[in-house]
Amino acid sequence: MRVPTTTPSADELRELDADSAVARLAPLGDDAIARLLHDLGPGRAVAILDRFGPERRRQIALAAGQVEGEQWLSGQHWRPGTVGRLMEPAPAVFAPDATVAEVIAALRPVVSHTLVTYVFVVDAERHLTGLVAFRELAFARQEQHLSEIMVARPFSLRPETAVIDAMNEVVTRHYPVYPVSDAEGRLVGVVRGAVLFEEQAFEISAQAGSMVGVEKEERLTTPWQRALRFRHPWLQLNLVTAFVAAAVVGLFQDTVNRIVILAIFIPVLSGQCSNTGCQALAVTLRGMTLGELKAGRAKALLWKEAWLGFLNGSLTGVVAGAGMFWVAHHQAHPQAFVLALITFVAMAGSCAVSGIAGAAVPLGLKRLGADPATASSIFLTTATDVASMGLFLGLAARPITAA
Fold first, then answer.
1. Which of 91, 87, 168 is nearest to 131 (CA)?
2. pLDDT in tens, 214-261
3. Quick one: three-class SS letters along the chain?
4. Which of 51, 63, 213, 350 could covalently link to 22 via disulfide, CB atoms 3.0 to 4.6 Å apart?
């Protein structure tokens, strides 16, 4: 497939996954690539820059200018999904004893091409000691020092903080720009509030796809070859897990052969339990995303979802049991009432297990260091199918055998 050599716009690059963006950018000069990455913002720029080889990365970063180039390269050292990946260099950094007149004179050429919201005040070792809103400089006396008008000990983020955790910290502040300081309190960069919200919105939008094995990088414009490579491994995993569920049915093949009516109700239980588990999964993922799941609350969540699953399973189990009784009675089966009772118990019990699984799958993935949403639906479906079919057919095996 021929790669277009025309220069793409920043908007076109936003619609591409990182690999496709690199394919479009690779034929261009380093200066042109640097300008486009600058327009994309630090988070997206670092994601694309990651895909270039080491030497080309350095050339592109240098073409962007020494300060910004170093910022891009340093951003690669932070984990994806952290504040460090979204940092920009602070455009206005001064010592506490700098006068208002000196600051305004120094910033006059800067503000023509860079939006300056705050002036950051640092000591000789670059520890962040305060900040001054840019508009405050207009009302201060020319001879005043920044230490006289600054807000001391301002709020700042840490570069290693996850974006979701950073969002929880800034949700009540709504500042346009946040300073980013290291563990010693030294200013290492800034992150714009709009960039934080944009990154979090992307993460949330990607959750639905991640649950079923669609990679976060895939976009509508991703070529089908790459989309196939993204999706197919998860479908193979789904097939393996489907074999696990099929094996459970195989264990009770003789039971199903003896009374075909069980086969009619297997998808009923499976579908109901899957939906129950997906409800618990959705609520758990939402709680994780919003930072509502605090330390020590996992056990309470599991108990709540188990209880909700049992109650919902019992209520729907009454209807399903009545349906089983009517079908079995219509077919003149001698154990129609027993089968109805088994259906009720299986529905209530398996929905309770599904509720636990819906909360436990993302919790377990997070504890293992993986994205809680990654293919969680695949693992959840396997758990619910095994629980519902195993419990239903296992309970039905005894009365059928006795008959």
1. 91
2. 555 666 667 777 777 777 777 787 788 778 888 888 888 787 777 778
3. CCCCCCCCCHHHHHCCCHHHHHHHHCCCCHHHHHHHHHHHCHHHHHHHHCCCCHHHHHHHHHHCCHHHHHHHHHHCCCCCCEHHHHCECCCCEECCCCEHHHHHHHHCCCCCCCCCCEEEEECCCCEEEEEEECCHHHHCCCCCEHHHHCEECCCCECCCCEHHHHHHHHCCCCCCEEEEECCCCEEEEEEEHHHHHHHHHHHHHHHHHHHCCCCCCCCCCCCHHHHHHHHHHHHHHHHHHHHHHHHHHHHCHHHHHHCCHHHHHHHHHHHHHHHHHHHHHHHHHHHHHHCCCCCCCHHHHHHHHHHHHHHHHHHHHHHHHHHHHHHHHHCCCCCHHHHHHHHHHHHHHHHHHHHHHHHHHHHHHHHCCCCCCCCHHHHHHHHHHHHHHHHHHHHHHHHHHHC
4. 51
Q: First vs last Cα of the chain: how many Å apart?
A: 66
**CA gap 164, 83 in Å, rounded:** 9
What's the maximum distance between 2 C-alpha atoms anywhere in the chain? 100
Residues of the chain with pLDDT under 70: 1-5, 15, 41-43, 65-76, 198-221, 289-291, 373-375, 398-403
* Residues facing residue 120 across a β-bridge: 93, 131
